[in-house]
């Protein structure tokens, strides 16, 4: 069944590169690999660049580091305070948890990568816009909504590394969860390992020197073999089911990793879905120059799949392979993965009230209007005061955004990039 799923992808890939699909169904392993490998190393034994799956690995590692006292998930990142852009002149305190849940409100959705023979800017320079990415900036009210952001991981990386190297920190932390996993962190020269796969952008067109360098290691610069990533997924599932003891690592994974308290689908750098049978699974996909990777995991059913490709396979094609391969497992045909697309937020039903004064609530924001001031709050605690500038209108004087407009019991808040709908709480005064 997996080979059937690969057939079309192989046709698209041409004759270059490799594809590996590894499936574990209740302990039973199925491996299908295609391609010549590299330097005498079979495709399944090569290291592949993980792209954005690096974010999920970083999230799991941060749970360990939090338990070790190396960082606090909910304490502001003071070491990088000077690198965090301001919002309307205000300082913004961001926490590691907000970065991991993609709720910072910052821009830079993806990172571009650099050739290994060129001069690469520092993290601070990249954050300031002196690399190939735009300068970090808030696209709307800070911590107001979930929006996928790679740029914020550069801040987290600077906080974790305190200006140093993460080559040992993240892999060592992951081994606390999964002792058998051997991950590699990228460097400008590339990880010192002869088993690195070579990426292809198009059939017979390799990436120069085999791969690009991603200085934002936490966002896209980790490497793993298919079995390394699978080992992490299986061990995380054991922790989620409480089968790996009741230690600190297991309790943190159960309590935090797949939490959706900030968004109905986005957990800690992984998307969580339910299939047609109501079973929960989580998944993520990574893409970098010449590499495409994807995983999906049903932790309660102990069914997991990892797919990695250096061939010219597009993310949608690899996602189709994953879906068709899962259809042959004990979970049957799952719902199609969301593929990183976050759903829009819906408005809360409202009643009919006419005064501005009172409390308002939405899916990701709350607001309190008293006299001539509207105080808007995000779920993460960021507050913004707006002044009445016209009847039922609250804004920063002289600025078009952010702006609140109240119409009866409805409040519309715009930060210039997104419209939020709030409704008056039933407990508000008249």
Helical percentage? 10-25%
When the domains are counted, the total is 2
* H/E topology pattern: HEEEHHHHHEEEHEHHEEEEHEEEEEEEE
CATH class call of the largest domain? Alpha Beta
Q: How large is the count of helical segments?
A: 10
CATH superfamily of the largest domain: DD-peptidase/beta-lactamase superfamily
- CATH topology assignment of the largest domain: Beta-lactamase
In spatial order, strands of the major sheet run 12-13-14-15-16-17-18-19
Rg to the nearest angstrom?
Answer: 23 Å
Question: What would you say about this model in short?
Answer:
This protein has helices at residues 2-13, 53-67, 96-100, 123-127, 151-161, 169-177, 217-220, 226-240, 248-257, 315-326; strands spanning 19-25, 28-34, 48-49, 184-185, 200-202, 205-206, 222-224, 271-274, 280-288, 291-298, 303-309, 358-361, 365-370, 373-378, 383-390, 393-395, 403-407, 410-414, 419-424.
What distinguishing features does this structure have?
alpha+beta; 430 residues; single chain; 2 domains; Beta-lactamase; Lipocalin; six-stranded antiparallel beta sheet; 23% strand
Provide structural commentary:
By secondary structure, this protein is α+β, with helices and mostly antiparallel strands. The protein folds into two domains: 2-326, DD-peptidase/beta-lactamase superfamily (Beta-lactamase, 3-Layer(aba) Sandwich); 358-424, Lipocalin. Helices cover 23% and strands 23% of the residues. It has ten helices and 19 strands. It has helices spanning 2-13, 53-67, 96-100, 123-127, 151-161, 169-177, 217-220, 226-240, 248-257, 315-326, and strands at residues 19-25, 28-34, 48-49, 184-185, 200-202, 205-206, 222-224, 271-274, 280-288, 291-298, 303-309, 358-361, 365-370, 373-378, 383-390, 393-395, 403-407, 410-414, 419-424. An eight-stranded antiparallel barrel has the order 12-13-14-15-16-17-18-19. The protein has a six-stranded antiparallel β-sheet with strand order 2-1-11-10-9-8, with helices on both faces. Strands 3-7-4 form a three-stranded antiparallel β-sheet. A hairpin with a 4-residue loop joins strand 10 and strand 11 (303-309). Mean pLDDT is 87; it is low at 334-353.
């Amino acid at each position: 069944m997996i080979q059937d799923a690969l057939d079309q992808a192989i046709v698209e890939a041409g004759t270059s590169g490799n594809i590996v699909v590894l499936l574990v169904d209740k302990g039973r392993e199925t491996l299908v690999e295609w391609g010549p490998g590299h330097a005498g190393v079979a495709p399944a034994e090569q290291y592949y660049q993980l792209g954005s799956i690096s974010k999920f690995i970083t999230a799991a590692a941060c749970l360990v580091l939090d338990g070790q006292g190396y960082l606090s998930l909910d304490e502001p990142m003071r070491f990088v305070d000077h690198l965090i852009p301001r919002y309307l002149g205000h300082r913004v305190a961001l926490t590691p948890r907000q970065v991991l849940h993609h709720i910072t409100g910052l821009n830079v959705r993806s990172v571009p990568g650099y050739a290994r023979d060129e001069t690469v800017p520092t993290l601070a320079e990249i954050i300031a816009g002196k690399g190939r990415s735009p300068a970090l900036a808030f696209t709307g009210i800070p911590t107001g909504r979930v929006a996928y952001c790679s740029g914020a991981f550069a801040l987290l990386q600077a906080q974790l590394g305190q200006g140093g190297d993460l080559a040992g920190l993240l892999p060592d932390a992951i081994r606390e969860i999964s002792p058998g996993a051997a991950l590699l962190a990228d460097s400008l020269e590339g990880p010192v390992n002869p088993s690195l796969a070579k990426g292809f952008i198009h059939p017979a067109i390799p990436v120069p020197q085999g791969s690009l360098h991603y200085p934002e290691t936490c966002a896209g610069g980790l490497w793993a073999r298919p079995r390394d990533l699978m080992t992490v997924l299986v061990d995380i599932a054991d922790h989620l089911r409480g089968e790996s003891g009741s230690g600190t690592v297991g309790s943190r994974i159960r309590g935090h990793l797949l939490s959706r308290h900030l968004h109905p689908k986005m957990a800690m750098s992984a998307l969580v879905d339910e299939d047609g049978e109501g079973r929960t699974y989580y998944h993520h996909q990574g893409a970098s120059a010449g590499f495409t990777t994807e995983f999906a995991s049903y932790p309660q059913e102990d069914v997991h799949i990892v797919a990695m490709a250096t061939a010219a396979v597009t993310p949608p094609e690899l996602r189709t392979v994953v879906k068709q391969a899962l259809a042959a497992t004990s979970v049957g045909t799952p719902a199609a993965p969301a593929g990183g697309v976050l759903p829009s937020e819906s408005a809360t039903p409202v009643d009919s009230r006419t005064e501005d004064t009172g409390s308002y609530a939405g899916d990701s924001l709350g607001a309190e209007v008293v006299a001539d001031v509207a105080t808007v709050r995000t779920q993460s605690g960021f507050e913004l005061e707006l002044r009445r500038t016209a009847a039922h209108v609250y804004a920063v004087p002289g600025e078009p955004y952010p702006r609140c407009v109240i119409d009866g019991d409805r409040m519309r808040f715009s930060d210039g990039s997104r419209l939020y709908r709030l409704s008056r709480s039933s407990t508000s005064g008249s």
